[in-house]
Amino acid sequence: MKFLNVHFFAVSLLLMSSLGLTACFDCQVGAEDDPQPDCNLKATFRHNLCGMGVWGAFVLELENGEVVQPWAADAHLTNFTPGPDQTVWVQIATTERDNRYEGVPTCRALGPYTERIGRAVRILCLAPAN
Q1: Tens of pLDDT along the chain (130 residues)?
Q2: 11, 43, 127, 128: least surrounded by Cβ within 10 Å?
């Protein structure tokens, strides 16, 4: 019976990934315009060509146009893989840049969002918006 449960779980994950479905990692979201209180800020992942952070060169462009660098994330969120222009609901907190990415190799090209990156943030909650 235990083998069947593990097998069912593995097949379910495979099916979800092949259909392009993603899981809510911290909070639940109803309709696209109805986030739960914890994940109440709409943002879009933007690929910045080069960079470092939780998801490498990905930055978040918030609804107000501010571009932030995801510098840290709660442990249960680090397995999430963003896609370019993917819209999500998040909860963020400003954090200090530390040396956690010091030894990570990255290119030095300036991406389209480099000049706009403001603060570094910690991702506390993350859920797909669409």
Answers
A1: 444 443 433 334 333 333 333 334 444 333 444 445 589 999 999 999 999 999 999 999 999 999 999 999 999 898 899 999 999 999 999 999 999 999 988 888 999 999 999 999 999 999 999 7
A2: 11
Residue 19, CA atoms < 13 Å, CB-side half-sphere: 9
**Nearest CA to 54 among 128, 124, 130, 129?**
124
Element (H, E) at 28: none
Reported pTM: 0.72
Q: Please give the backbone phi and psi of residue 16, each rounded to the nearest 5 degrees, phi first.
A: -60, -45
Alpha carbon distance 19, 10 (integer Å)? 14
